[in-house]
Amino acid sequence: MPNRRGETPGRGRERPIPWPVVVVPVFNAPEALDACLASLYGTLPSGARVLLVDDASDDRRVAGVLDRWLERAGSLWNLERQPRNRGFVATANRGMQAVTGDVVLLNSDTVVTAGWLEGLTRCLESDPGIATATPWTNNGEIASLPRFCAVNPIPSDPDSVARIVAATGDAVYPDLPTAVGFCMAVRRAALDAVGYFDPDFGLGYGEENDFSMRVRAAGWRNVLCDDVYVVHVGGQSFGPLGLAPDPVAMQRVLDRHPDYLDRVKAFIEDDPLAERRTTVVRALEQAGVLTREALGV
Fold first, then answer.
1. 242: left (phi over 0), alpha (psi -120 to 50) or beta
2. Which pairing describes strands 221-229 and 183-186: parallel, antiparallel, or unpaired?
3. d(CA 197, CA 119)
4. Which residue range or ranges hold the Glycosyltransferase 2-like domain (predicted)?
5. Of 143, 153, 205, 213, which is most buried with the most CB atoms under 10 A?
6. Quick one: CATH architecture of 21-290?
7. Where in the chain are the domains?
8. What is the SS3 assignment for 237-276?
9. Which pLDDT score, from 0 to 100, does residue 6 have?
C-alpha cells in the first residue's frame, strides 16, 4: 500500500548497504504510538526495516494500533512481544539484539520528519568512529531547539522545521558528552565492542548515559546529527514507569563514571552548539516557522 509519498515501503531500488533498523520499544500510550508509526510510515526510505517491541502493554488499544500499522506496512515491519513487562532497558536490548547491523533506537512518543533516517545514516557513515548520533529536537536537553536545555513547544509544522534545519549550513556533527535517548542511531560495531544497555538500569533512565560513557572510554564518539530534526513529545509510553529523572539511577552512572556530570556541566557552560543553534533558529524565525513564544522572546 502506498505511503504519503506515493511509494510502497520496501519496494523499488534498495540501498546497497542496508539502512539502520529502526527499533521502537512500546508500552501503552496508544495515541502517541499511532502518531509515531504514522510518521515512520510516511518518511522511511525504500528498504528500511522496523522492529516494534511491545513490553506487555496492558492498554488493550495498543494491540489494535500495532496490528493496523503492521498490516499496512508489510513484511519490512515486524513485532516482538515481551511475555511480561520488563521495562525500557530490557525491551530496548531485546530489539537491538534481535537485528543485525546499525540501529536507530526510537521512542514511541516521537514524530519523525522527512529525510530523518537518511540524515542519521549519513552521519554514521561520515566517520567510522561515531558510535551514537542524536538529532535536534524540541525536547531533548542538550539537543533541544530553539532553547537549549529546555522543553520547547512542539512546532505546528515539524516537517518545515526539519527542512530548514537540513538546509541551514553544512552538517558538522559536533561531539556531545552523551547521546539523548529519545532518538539515537547506534553503530553495530560499538554495540559489539562495549555491549548493550546495562540491565541494572531496570525500568530506564541513565542507561544511554552509561552507554555513551562506555563507548567514549573505548575511543568512540557521541555526536549531534545537526541536519536532522525529530519531535519528542515526552512523558508518554515508558515515561510514567521510570523515565523521569531518577537520583538512584544517576548515582549509578556517577559511581561508574565519576566525571560524567563534570563533562555535562562543562558542555552546558561552554555551549559549543551555540553558533550552530543560533544560525538554525534565525533561519526558522526568518521563515516564520516558529512563533515568538516558541523562540522564548
1. left
2. unpaired
3. 24
4. 22-193
5. 143
6. Alpha-Beta Complex (3.90)
7. 21-290
8. CCHHHCCCCCHHHHHHHHHHCCCHHHHHHHHHHHCCCHHH
9. 33
**What is the three-class DSSP state of 109?**
coil
Q: Which three cell numbers stand for residue 148?
A: 537549549
Instruction: Kindly report the number of other CB atoms within 10 A of residue 225's CB atom.
Output: 30
pTM: 0.90
Identify the pLDDT of residue 17: 77
What DSSP character marks residue 156? S
Q: How far apart are CA 78 and CA 75, in angstroms?
A: 7
Q: C-alpha grid cell for residue 197? A: 544497555
Alpha-carbon torsion, ordered 143, 148, 153, 159, to 10 deg: -50
Measured distance between the N- and C-terminal CA atoms of the chain, rounded to whole angstroms: 44
In angstroms, what CA-CA distances link 76 with 8, 16, 71, 155, 186? 11, 16, 11, 30, 20
pLDDT tens, 1-52?
Answer: 333 333 334 434 456 779 999 999 999 999 999 999 999 999 999 999 999 9
